[in-house]
Amino acid sequence: MFELLSQPAPDGGTYGKWLLSGLTWTMALAIAGWAIAFAVGVAIGTGRCLSGRTIPAICRVYVEIFRNIPLLVQMFLWYFVLPELLPPNLGDWLKQLAPPWGNFLPAVLCLGLYTASRVAEQVRAGIEALPPGQKEAAIALGLHPRHVQYYVIVPQALRLLIPSLTSEVMGIYKNTSVALTIGVMELTAQARQISEMTFQTFPAFAAVTITYLVLALIVWAGMTWLEHHLAAPTSTACDPRPVFLPPVKEENR
Amino acid sequence: MNNFDVSFILDSLPYLLKGLQFSLILTAVAFSCGIALGTILALLVHLRVPVLGLIAKTYVALIRSIPLIMVLFWFFFLVPLFLGWLSGASRPVPVGATWTAFITFALFEAAYYCEIIRVGLRAVPKGQFEAAAALSLNPCATYLHVILPQVFRATVPIILTQTIILFQDTSLVYVLSLTDLLGAASKLAQISGRLTEFYLTIALIYLVICFGASQLVWRLRKKTKLQ
Question: What NCBIfam families does its record include (chain B) (predicted)?
Fold first, then answer.
C-alpha cells in the first residue's frame, strides 16, 4: 500500500521525502511551540495565584483572550492582521521574511501563546490544589515571597500537573495541523499535497495518520516516564520509592 | 495600518450572522449526536461488551490521537466511498462539504464526550449499582434511571466546557471552504481586502460568545459544588 512513498516526486525526491519534511515541520512547530507555551504558561499561571490585584488581573485577561478565540482565528490574526498593526517597517519585515520562516514564525507564536493560556489554567489549578500549609510553612521559614513560589509552590504544583500537561502536549502536536491554513507545509498539508499530485488519497492519508499515531504514542510514553521519574518522594500516587535519594543501605547505618 | 473602517463591517453584518448561524447549528447537531453516540460508546467500554467494547475503545483512542483537520479530510474522502459501497454503486457518492462537516463533527466529538462520560461512570459509587440490583431493576432500567442521570449531573460542567471547545473547533470547517462565521469573514475579507477589520471583528464575536458561555459554566460549577 505504501509503495507511493518510494515513488519519485516532481521535485526530484520521493513522496516519502515530502512526508519526512512535513514531519520535521510538525515536530519543529510542536517543540518550539511547547517551549513558549510552557514558559509563558507557568509564568501566567503562577501570576494568577499571587496576592495583590494587578498581576492576577492581567494574567486573567491574558488567559480569557487566548482561550476564548478559536486557534484558527488567532492564526489569521498573527499572520494577516499583526503585520498591519505593527509599525510599518517592522510589519514589512515580517511580511518579507523568506518563505518558510514568514509562515513558521507566526504559526509558532500563535500555537505557543494559545497553548500557554491552557497551561496557565492547569498550573493555577495545581497551585490551588496544594495544601495552604506549604505556603505558610515557607513564609514561616522566612523565605522571600519570590523564593516561596520558586522553590516551594511551583515545583510541587508542576509535579502534580504532569498528567494534565500530558494532554496539553498531545493538544499542541495535534494543533500544529492548523498551521496549514497559513501555508506551513506540515504533515497534514503534505498528505493533501501528495494526494492531489498522485490521486492516491488513501495511502497518503494512511501514512500521515500512522505517523500521527506514532507521535502520540511517543508523547504519551515520554510523559508517563517523566511522571514516574519526577514523582515527589511524598506522593503516593506513583511509585512510592524516593527518587532523589539513593536507597539507604544496611551497612551505611 | 490604514484607518479602521467600520462601515464595511456594518454592511456585511447580515452575511456574518448567517455564518454564525451555521456555526451554531453545526455545534448543536454535533453536540446532540455526539452526546448520544458518546454515551453508547462509553457504555460499551464500561460494560466491557465483548468485541464491541474493544472496538469502541480503539475508536476513541484513534480519533483522539489525530488532528481534527486530518479527520475532516478523511471523512471528506472516505464517506463518499463508503456510501458508494453501501448503495452498491460502482462510483463514490459525493456528499458535499456541509454533510461531511456534520458527520465528522458528530463522530469526532462522540469520542471526546465518550471519555468524559466514561470517567463519570467510573465515579458512580458501587452502592448505587447494588441498590438498583436490590430493587430488582433490570440492567437497562438501572442505567437509564439510576446511573446515567447521576453521571450527566456530575459531568455537566465538563461536557459544556467541551462544547465551548467544539464551538471554537467548528471554525476548522474553513478547510472545507464552508461558510461558517470564519468562512464568511474570510470570503468578505478577500473580496474587500479589509482583512484586519473582518478578522478582528470575528475574533471579538468569538471572544464574547465563548467568554460568556464559560462564565455561565463556571457559575453552574459553583452551584453544583455547593449542593
Answer: HEQRo_perm_3TM
* Cβ–Cβ contact B7 with A under 8 A: no
| Domain boundaries defined on chain B | 24-178
pTM of the model: 0.86
Tell me, what's the pLDDT at A234? 56
What pLDDT does residue A114 have? 96
Q: State which residues of chain B have pLDDT below 50.
A: 1
Architecture of domain B24-178: Orthogonal Bundle (1.10)
Rounded to a whole number of angstroms, the distance from the CA of A2 to the nearest CA of chain B is 17
| B63 → chain A, closest CA residue | A213
Q: Which three cell numbers stand for residue B53?
A: 467494547
Q: Which residue of B has its CA nearest to A214?
A: B65
How many CA within 13 A on the CB side of residue A27? 11
Whether B27 contacts B173, CB under 8 Å = no
pLDDT value at residue B166: 95
Question: A73–B195: do the CB atoms touch at under 8 Å?
Answer: no
Question: Phi and psi at residue A169, in whole multiples of 5°?
Answer: -65, -40
Picking from B1, B67, B199, the nearest residue to A212 by CB comes out as: B67
What's the pLDDT tens digit per position in A168-195? Answer: 898 898 999 999 999 889 999 998 888 8
Question: Are B73 and A73 in contact (CB < 8 Å)?
Answer: no
C-alpha cell at position B225: 459544588
Nearest to A102 by CA among A79, A82, A121: A79
Question: Over chain A (253 residues), what is each successive 10-residue block's mean pLDDT?
Answer: 76 84 93 95 92 92 95 93 85 79 91 95 89 89 88 86 86 92 90 86 89 91 85 52 44 43
Question: Is A15-240 a CATH 3.20.10.10 domain?
Answer: no
Kindly list the domain boundaries of chain A, sorted by start residue. Answer: 15-240
CA dihedral A68, A70, A74, A75 (to 10 degrees): 160
C-alpha grid cell for residue A53?
490585584
Cα B135 to Cα B47, B127, B139, B148: the distances in Å are 20, 12, 11, 17
